[in-house]
Amino acid sequence: MWKKVIGSCSTVWIVTGINRAASEKEPWEILKESCSLMGNGGECRQIHFICTKSDHFEDSDDESDVDVRAQILKQNKQANIDVMKEFDKLKDVKKHFSEECFKVFTVSSKEFLRKKRLDPDETGDSSLHQ
């Protein structure tokens, strides 16, 4: 069904868990398969690769807020690097979409609701509302 509507979308979101964002095959297969539908004169101008669950850690309640915050931000940065490396390998996709069109977001839903360890702009959720 998504193949029928993807050509008329201005932004496409590809969503996967942060722990497997760069290594899981399915999101990248979706991107590759749909690239020709999006890039050849279609409406799509941006692809947002969204890494979810960036604040899910074992026993994070036992650690200090400062340590958990540092761990989340480090993992978010690494996920961004890993996803961009995978994107750089996709030469056929890059023919249609430049790095400016491909954005990586990390989403910390628990912290977005709690507002305990991260600032709202660090949760990623607010960036996606723009």
Describe the model:
By secondary structure, this protein is of the alpha/beta class. The chain has one domain (12-125): Rossmann fold (3-Layer(aba) Sandwich), CATH 3.40.50. The protein is built from 6 helices and 3 strands; from the N terminus they run αβαβααβαα. The protein has a 3-stranded parallel β-sheet. The longest helix is centred in the middle third of the chain and has 25 residues, at 65-89. The radius of gyration is 16 Å and the shape is elongated. 28% of the residues are buried. The mean pLDDT is 77.
In short:
By secondary structure, the protein is an alpha/beta fold.
The average pLDDT value, as a whole number, equals: 77
Please, how many domains?
1
Strand order of the largest sheet: 1-2-3
The level 1 CATH classification is: Alpha Beta
CATH architecture: 3-Layer(aba) Sandwich
Write the layout of secondary structure elements.
Blueprint: H1 2-5, E1 11-17, H2 25-39, E2 46-52, H3 65-89, H4 91-96, E3 102-106, H5 109-114, H6 125-128
Parallel strand pairs: 1-2, 2-3
